[in-house]
Amino acid sequence: MRVDVFNNDVEQALRRLKKLMNREGLFRELRQRRYREKPFEQRAREMRECIRRSKKADNKRNYDQ
Length: 65
Known about the structure:
- This protein is mainly alpha-helical and about 60 residues long.
- The chain is built from three helices and no strands.
- It is about 75% helix and about 0% strand.
- About 0% of the residues are buried.
């Protein structure tokens, strides 16, 4: 990942880098990889995420109508 620094404004470049990393899901992945996740925990987490995504999409569809 690369961020350019303009006018020696390092703080702005760091904010931009942090935003990019957040969009890529890097912080979330680092948090998940901190501890080993057992296979049944991984399946349960993925199922929860799937349900959450489907509910979110369903709510968005119902809102548009």
